[in-house]
Structures are given as C-alpha cells and as structure tokens.
Write a structure and sequence with these properties.
The chain is an alpha/beta fold. 52% of the residues lie in helices and 13% in strands.
C-alpha cells in the first residue's frame, strides 16, 4: 500500500524540520503538536494541523516523534491516543521515530494488536542541520515488507537508510549511537575551547582530527560543526531543551545496561555530567560558534 497521507506527531526542533522535508517531497501532511504556536506556524504554511492525536488515525503513515517514552505511550495507547481511532479496515504504518526503549515499542505493539496497523521503529541521527537539509541517517527495524513500504517516506528525510533487523533493533543502535555521540559533543566543545585559548581555531584543528585518532562527528566539517553548536545554543531555552533530551537518552542507555546486568562506569559518569548541565556549558557552546583570531 503506497503512502500518500502522512501524520507527524511531535513537531519540535527535529520534528518541525522533518515535517517540512516530508511536505516538500509531496506527501499530504498533517501535523499534531501540543504547542499552539507550532501549529499556527504550520497552518500559515498550508499544512493541516491538530492538537488531537486521534485526528492522525486516518493517515497512511503515522510518525511519532515526541520527547520521551511516557509521551509515546500517551499519543499511541493512552485514552487520547490514536490507536483507539484506527478504523477496522485501515492499515496505517506506525513509525516510532523517537529514541525509545524496545520495551516501549512492545507496549505500542500490544496496543495495536486489535488493529490492522503495522509498526516499525525508525530513529534518526544527524542533528538539526541535517534534519533541515533532509540528509539524516535513519535506522529502521521491523518486518521487511513494512520497511519496503516505509522507504520512500524515509528517503524524504534522510540519505543514509539502514535496515537493522527485528523490531527494536534500530532503537538499541540509536541509543548506543547517542551514548557515543553525546560524549563527543560535550568533550569536543571543551577541546575546541581549549584549542582556541592557545591560539588554534576550529578551522585548523578539525581537518587534522578528521584524519587522526581524534576523529569524531564534530571533526567532520568545521563549518557544519559550528552550525550544529549554533543551532543547539541559539537560545538558553533551546539549549536546555536539548540538554534534557540528551540526558534522557543517556538514561535509556543506562536502562539497557541494567537490563543486560552490565556496569558501565564511563556511561554512568557521563550521565551524571550531562544531568548537571548548566550555563557554563551553554556559554562554551556559544564560544565554539564564534571566530577566534590566531
């Protein structure tokens, strides 16, 4: 069944950018969010909007991109969730694109049992800049036929699409990716500030890191790195919103570790550090975006 109508629930920093990529690709889009300002912006852009997740139940594909596991359960299985509004003959593809736990996916799958809907998980990586460009990395897992059906929609938002296996596998990979990526983001900002204080700017150091043992996401392209930090630290509100999300992601990693009876001391220490994020980190990230004379 070809996907034509797409509902996206959760048009925050990432979701709003992804929604616009979906619209540009020609899909019939409806955006659901709890922020009236977000809805007003999309309405002015000619997009159908709603506050009620149940209004999304008629779409061919329903993307869930809310902030945490509790919200995922609420918009899917909760009293006001869209699952209860899915018509008996309808077969929507439910795409959980939030970063979540496999156990939460199973809870959604249980809620969908009495419908003909299909479920995949498809978390993303790449940050706000790549979300804007439609060049995200997307990890998909679930039934192969469902992934085939989802592919054209995913191509509207990403350029690197990976199939990861059984339902939930993509989320495990995403959580581990975030565990490493968050460490890089926080430590790279400290490294770039240290370099600048000694007269070495990001344009000098990033190309060397990229072909050396310090290679990481933040060394790939100095201009894009500065764009990322600029997007993340464009305001205190945006910065602390991101800090809350990455803190949540590290707690998901700790949850996976506990489930596997693993003690991961570096993860635990990183999580404590990120939980304590304050304005010092905000100031550092803003510093990275600035030009520094050498």
């Amino acid at each position: 069944m070809t996907i034509k109508a797409v509902a996206l629930i959760g048009a925050g920093n990432m979701g709003s950018r992804m929604a616009r990529c979906i619209k540009r690709s020609g899909f019939d889009l409806i955006v659901c969010d709890q922020d009236p300002l977000v809805l007003d912006t999309f309405k002015q852009e000619g997009v159908r909007v709603t506050l009620d997740p149940r209004d999304c139940a008629l779409a061919d594909a329903i993307i869930v991109l809310v902030a945490n596991d509790e919200q995922i359960v609420s918009v899917t299985c909760g009293p006001a969730g869209f699952i209860g509004a899915i018509l008996s003959e309808h077969q929507p593809l439910v795409c959980i694109m939030s970063t979540t736990l496999p156990s939460t996916l199973q809870q959604v799958a249980t809620g969908l049992k009495n419908t003909r809907a299909h479920l995949i998980d498809a978390p993303v990586s790449g940050g706000l800049v790549k979300a804007e460009q439609g060049t995200l990395t997307i990890m998909m897992s679930g039934d192969e036929q469902d992934l085939n059906r989802a592919e054209p929609l995913m191509r509207s938002m990403g350029t690197e699409i990976f199939r990861c296996g059984a339902l939930g596998s993509a989320e495990v990979i995403k959580v581990i990716n975030n565990m490493l990526g968050i460490a890089n983001i926080y430590l790279a900002a400290e490294a770039f500030e240290l370099a600048a204080k000694h007269g070495v700017n990001i344009e000098q150091i990033a190309p060397i890191l990229e072909v050396s043992s310090g290679r990481n996401f933040m060394s790939l392209d100095s201009a894009m790195t500065q764009q990322h930090y600029q997007a993340w630290a464009r305001s205190k509100e945006a910065f602390f919103s991101l800090a809350n999300i990455v803190s949540k992601d590290l707690h998901l990693a700790k949850n996976l570790a506990q489930g596997a009876q693993l003690d991961l001391p570096l993860l635990n220490e990183l999580s404590r550090h990120v939980d304590a994020t304050d304005e010092t980190v905000f100031t550092r990230w803003q510093f990275v975006t600035q030009k520094h004379n050498t």
